[in-house]
Task: inverse folding
DNA sequence: GATGAATGAGTTTTCATTCAT
DNA sequence: AATGAATGAAAACTCATTCAT
């Protein structure tokens, strides 16, 4: 297993980065939150950026794994897509901190953001491949599976993020209870027309 | 009409903020890009934050206006929703800089971000009201119009953002040509099931 | 004339760099000594290194000018060499701080030191050209004017440095009084054999 | 005999200190170069400073021994002085790393430098005593043997240093071949007038 | 209205040193 | 004897903001 202190630092870093964003996050704060000296972080990570990138990669890895596991149980593309949405939203609900970071830091021209987008691109490819299979097997019908993948990703992600922040502003914490609502909405968007 | 210098500063600020994000953007750089002295910015704006907030508010205003104008021409909610998506995507395509800022700075706990989210909330209300009318007039059918509004907003925004950055990485600039692809995709998502 | 603050910073920097050497010198200390804020130094100089290099260049420039002026008054190479030694030693005596920096920072593989050595090389060329002329005019006789230039430079410089530090340890300050002693010694080394 | 590890550390330390100077040299780098753990250095030396001082003392010791051995074979002061110059220059040529350190770290107000200068003072006394004997025995003639000792030390040292760095910049390594040139030059400076 | 030199609080990062194993 | 993870004090540098001109 990974070095104990590294784990502690990772935990603390997610909290702090999610709370403040990359630039506003202070290494001091991360160190304090982790209960280690600032030097200790630098003993394990070359820089703030490297720490952040490590974090993001791990986060995307977890999301991918989680979604892949959900898909693996299903046979037909439409069931797989359903499972994908379900897993994606639940993952974001359970890992709100990561979700915040994901959208906050996904876009931008900094190197770390570019690197990060590569990971997102991979995740989008996963979605796209499900769509593609559906098309090939005659289940789905769409002209632009790549754009559709982005749109679905955006819908599923922003629903959760918006909910997180709106609940935060009302200081309620019962987000898990609202998961079905969000899943249902995105499922409808994808599988049924809004129009009667 | 607004003071000439203010306009110049606004223009420059959008560029710089979009390129670097709020924190990494330097007032020096904005001043240089605007061709004014740094002090001049502070003569017109109290702070970096105020400049940014002014910018974002104006941006959201423009987006709202643009969408509202699109809707106004239509009668039925479904036509209105169609027009809304169309206008939203075209606006983001035409104002890529603003689009970047929008998603980059929409989430976070800083005061400026909270303020900004208020504007987004208003925009989401606009979408929601179209959905609501559709329900009332028996055109639409959905359990959670609020969540649906978020999902639609996310789908339409992320499609464009993802496209912008993916084109940037390939150094092509022909994003306007791809607008129909994106509009079509989101329209399908909203109006037709993916499933045959 | 040069900007007032720049001048003040230069003055302070010579003091501090000479006292502590490049690495041990703190920008804080220089700022305090100059009576300006640390930021002011960085407003005028890009980095500690740039400040230092500027300083050294100016120092070598002054030394060169001073020696050149001494030489200019003389006709024959031997008179010129005499004047050169005289001027060099007096300059070091008057500008002890600079003399310290000169020897302390002349050697090393850092970029700033390499740059600095280029200036010293130029100064050595000046000495060498006097020697060369002496040879051509039949006044001097030597096999390796380049090495001789280094040797003379070393003799004249180290004599003064050693004296500065030995006086410092005895807390006496009367170095100017000892200048003739040093000049005489180096003159003898160059013009008369030690051997009777 | 000295502990094996101590020897290894010394070797590595000379390299690293000579390459980077005292301040820029990193204990990590020395440890790596020596192939031991950082803690091991601290097991054998109390501090970076102590390691450095030990090094310098040993270096000066070796120089002194080498020169003393050269002198011991000669009888007359002028032969002794000749041998001294010869030994000094050859020692610097053979121990370039040490030579660099010697001049780089000889001057300055830090405690380690003061300590080091004590050793140099002793070496200068050795030179001075040869001069003094020459005067007493009627071979030499000079007003200020102490200053003359400094001047000779400076000439002999700087000649080599300047050559080392100028060859380094041209990436040639044949310094040993140039030793006679340098010895000859300093010998002339000391024993024969430049003037015909 | 406009300017840009000056400021100093705030941040990342480095590295000698320690100490439990 | 030897190790190397952990530490925290120290330093270079940044940049939003101010203000005299």
Result:
């Amino acid at each position: 297993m990974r070095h104990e202190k590294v784990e502690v630092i990772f935990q603390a870093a997610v909290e702090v980065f999610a709370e403040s964003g990359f630039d506003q996050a202070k290494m001091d704060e991360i160190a304090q939150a982790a209960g280690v000296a600032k030097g200790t972080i630098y003993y394990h990570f070359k820089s703030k950026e490297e720490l952040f990138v490590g974090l993001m990669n791990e986060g995307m890895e977890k999301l991918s794994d989680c979604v892949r596991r959900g898909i693996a149980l299903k046979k037909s593309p439409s069931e797989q897509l359903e499972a994908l949405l379900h897993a994606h939203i639940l993952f974001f609900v359970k890992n709100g901190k990561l979700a915040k970071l994901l959208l906050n830091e996904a876009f931008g021209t900094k190197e770390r953001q570019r690197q990060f987008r590569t990971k997102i691109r991979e995740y989008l490819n996963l979605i796209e491949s499900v769509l593609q299979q559906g098309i090939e097997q005659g289940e789905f019908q769409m002209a632009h599976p790549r754009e559709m993948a982005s749109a679905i990703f955006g819908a599923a992600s922003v629903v959760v993020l918006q909910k997180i922040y709106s609940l935060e502003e009302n200081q309620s914490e019962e987000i898990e209870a609202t998961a079905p609502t969000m899943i249902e909405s995105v499922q409808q968007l994808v599988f049924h027309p809004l129009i009667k």
